[in-house]
Amino acid sequence: MDPAIVEKIKDHPCFSREAHLYFARMHLAVASACNIQCNYCNRKYDCANESRPGVASRRLTPDQAVRRAIAAASQVPQLSVVGVAGPGDACYDWKKTKATLVAIAREIPDVKLCISTNGLALPEHVDEVVDMNVGHVTITINMVDPTIGRKIYPWIFYNGRRYVGIEASRILHERQMLGLEMLTERGILTKVNSVMIPGVNDEHLVQVNKSVKDRGAFMHNIVPLISEPSHGTYYGQTGQRCPAPFELTALRDRLEGTTEVMRHCRQCRADAVGLLSDDRANEFTMDQLAAAATYDSGKRHAYRQLIERDRRGQTLEAKTRP
Ligand code: CLF
Ligand code: SF4
Questions:
Q1: To bridge 168 with a disulfide, which of 156, 174, 194, 283 should be the other Cys (CB 3.0-4.6 Å)?
Q2: For a pocket test of ligand 1, which of 8, 116, 136, 252 has the largest count of ligand atoms closer than 8 A to its C-beta?
Q3: Mutation test of ligand 2: which of 30, 32, 47 has the most ligand atoms closer than 8 Å to its C-beta?
Q4: In angstroms, what is the span from residue 27 Cα to ligand 1's centroid?
Q5: Domain spans of the chain?
Q6: Is 53 in the pocket of ligand 2 (CB under 6 A)?
Q7: 17 alpha carbon – ligand 2 mean position (Å)
Q8: Considering only CA atoms, which residue is closest to atom 4 of ligand 2?
Q9: What residues contact 264, with CB distance under 8 A and at least 6 apart?
């Protein structure tokens, strides 16, 4: 792999399988508005493109989010990434996403910034994404064929009006592809998440993989549809089934060798904090935070040095092994 890419992913727990053992992410639930409707989403919960439905995060103002990030960055040594992944869409609710991430970059300059989006409002913000030094973006792309898209998206809201049917999916598709191309051209590492919906887009995701690879996506993360009647989503109420684990594995296996395939996603909530395997969100609720906090980088720096030493040791051992 290109050393510049290795450098970008080595401490991002989602973009590198190895890094998720050592490094943690934090989500700030500031972006509550959304501009599309997915048939697997109930807006009572977080954005189901990036989160598991059934758990709702408390919406934060950008100021509250920054306080929460300062507390977590001071106390969670493994923290390396701060992201906005809902609870709606990070690019549509852009003012809040931008205000939050600009303040984080100022207060905690040594964390990576990440966003996750459905892509519809992405193209108009790509230049700001670059200026803000957001190095990692995830776009949820479930189709590249609007006839399939119309079974997933009943409507979108774009340029001040609502579109339905095939027109909605055509616009969404064009914006997603444009956003991905713009990010790639600017050197932003982009991951594509796709929700696997049996009988709707499962076979089609092979074609999605090819299209996003051709446009420079670094990684493809196939996540299983989660669809319970109690979640109150269209799919939940109409009996749309979820993929079985073996179906998910078989699809991921088919895509292996094209883009990188993510297999360690935890479908985190929009306020997750900690290692992917050890969520500490409950330790950082607003009630527990001091009114004003100052960032203390001590624990994170000490931990990072330890990991660097450990990694250097492993490389040396591999080189000298007979
Ligand atoms: Fe968050 Fe997403 Fe950034 Fe990771 S999560 S915005 S890329 S920092 Fe990671 Fe969580 Fe899976 Fe997302 S495990 S749901 S892929
Ligand atoms: Fe729900 Fe996310 Fe889809 Fe918006 S983009 S409808 S929040 S799953």
A1: 156
A2: 116
A3: 47
A4: 8
A5: 3-320
A6: no
A7: 26
A8: 34
A9: 14, 17, 20, 276
* Alpha helices for the chain (secondary structure H): 3-9, 62-75, 94-107, 126-131, 146-149, 165-185, 205-214, 234-237, 245-255, 298-320
**Class for the domain spanning 3-320:** alpha beta
The answer to whether the CB of 49 falls within 8 A of the CB of 195 is: yes
In total, the chain counts a number of residues equal to 322
Q: Which amino acid is at 120?
A: L
Q: Strand, helix or coil at 113? A: strand
pLDDT digits (tens, 9 = 90+) for 29-43: 999 999 999 999 998
What pLDDT digit, counting tens, does each position of 166-215 carry? 999 999 999 999 999 999 999 999 999 999 999 999 999 999 999 999 99
The residue whose C-alpha atom lies closest to atom 9 belonging to ligand 1 is 14
pTM exceeds 0.85: yes
Q: Among residues 170, 213, 164, 163, which one has the least CA distance to residue 191?
A: 213
What's the CA gap between 304 and 308, in Å, rounded?
6
